[in-house]
């Protein structure tokens, strides 16, 4: 982390009248931040009575009512200019009621790889219609399915895939570094870090643009960042999208994942070696490879419209000239609901993900209510819906902001907080993207703590939570996560706990409140995030994207008044 002049200026500010001075207004408000209250909120939100907080379910009604009550009790005003704490978010729910697919080789007597059970594949159609069929579509392997002019990369090489079934690898190409082939080339797709080109959202988008009939992503646990059951858990159930004028008729008809074994079976039936295809896909001269097979798919959809809600509260700024400008805190209130098809525990309680972040949002809101005088700019507390369905509540807000994004100075997002005790560090996912990191580092230093980058950049976490929708539109965004260097614990403890969570509890019914949780670290993290927001709300400068950030141009265009929409 570069020590900037801003760092020095802020440190001086901190030591004199600033955030940490004992007895200052902010200092007193920070002292009210309570781990017990956070845990109490988590216990309510993650209780079985809230049914896993699925959008459009009775669990949503309970969650929304609870959040509104808590914001009101904290003394915060309705965040919607219409005088309510709610923003309506229209969603379309679609569930594949019947999915069938097969990959055929040769004539009618040739080999066939059926796609039936969820051990083999999961597929959906995002077209809002009862039935989508694909018949006799040529199957083409397109590497990672990436078209990235910024990296001089094009996996399609102009090959016409209209009406075809494209098969591709997850993540972005792992290009060896020419200087040291044992390492990844840092100049290609962020080296080890996953760029947006590696995300499944991108892959279905580009396949749609190319006019493909079906898109199959090969699942691999490492490059995807999560194991196969997570894919099945999310995709095998009802999915959601924002309404589209054409009912998504222009989308690729079938959006599917295939298990690694299925991919290998398809390859061997095609007389190809999967490892050889992977190796070919790492080369910039890769060209699409026809697999000599035809694909058939039939997907029946049950489609319904759902009214969901973002919940939003506001602390109006004390400076009449600046109160039209906002700092936004976000956390997604939703989780995966319940699945009646599951044996045993059917409720995805989502205690860590993201009852914990929502609870922290409520607690930071509560502490703002303790300030005798509001900061100069306004603060917005936004609990968004349908993050688990593709960041939809945040996307809807960013496309329909209640206050202009050009005067929204920052989004500070919380998605799964530190539940395992105090740390000497805090993680900023996407470290170095914005000047908010400098502020975070400066305030962390006053706690004797440091900030670090994402310990798992290969998972592409910056693109996987709500702040990304703000970033996409240009708003400087900070997504802080638990540090990994735990106080009083052996080395490796943080990573071990995180890996255990990913393996055992992430997006599973077992993500419940655990008896050994320790919110002491979360309290310190909340102090940091509240202080960073306060600095922005009080300060004279605006947070900025740093040079080299993929979002900088968007912000500059927005501030020049060239519009906030893509
Ligand atoms: Zn989450």
Describe this structure in words.
This protein is α/β, with parallel strands linked by helices and 566 residues long. It contains 16 helices and 20 strands. The protein has a 16-stranded mixed β-sheet that branches. Helix 11 packs parallel to helix 13 and helix 12 packs across helix 15. The N terminus is likely disordered. The structure holds zinc ion. Zinc ion (ZN) binds next to helix 10.
Taking pLDDT < 50 over at least 5 consecutive residues as the criterion, the unreliable ranges are 1-17
Mean pLDDT: 92
Number of strands: 20
In DSSP terms (H or I, runs of 4 or more residues), the helix count works out at 16
Give the radius of gyration: 24 Å
Ligands, ions, cofactors: zinc ion
Separation of the first and last Cα atoms: 31 Å
Principal-axis shape equals globular
Instruction: Indicate the percent of residues in helices.
Output: 25-40%
Key attributes of the depicted protein:
two-stranded antiparallel ribbon, 16 helices, alpha/beta, 16-stranded mixed sheet, 566 residues, binds zinc ion
List the helices and strands and how they pair.
Blueprint: H1 5-15, H2 25-31, H3 35-45, H4 58-73, E1 77-78, E2 86-105, E3 112-115, E4 121-124, E5 131-141, E6 147-148, E7 153-154, E8 165-169, E9 176-177, E10 180-184, H5 200-209, E11 214-218, H6 221-224, H7 228-235, E12 239-241, E13 254-258, H8 260-269, H9 274-281, E14 289-315, E15 326-332, H10 351-369, E16 378-384, H11 392-399, E17 408-413, E18 425-429, H12 436-446, E19 450-452, H13 467-473, E20 477-482, H14 493-504, H15 520-538, H16 552-559
Parallel strand pairs: 5-8, 8-11, 11-13, 15-16, 15-17, 17-20, 18-19
Antiparallel strand pairs: 1-14, 2-3, 2-12, 2-14, 4-13, 5-14, 6-7, 9-10, 14-16, 18-20
Helix pairs in contact: 1-12, 3-10, 10-15, 11-13, 12-15
Bound molecules: zinc ion.
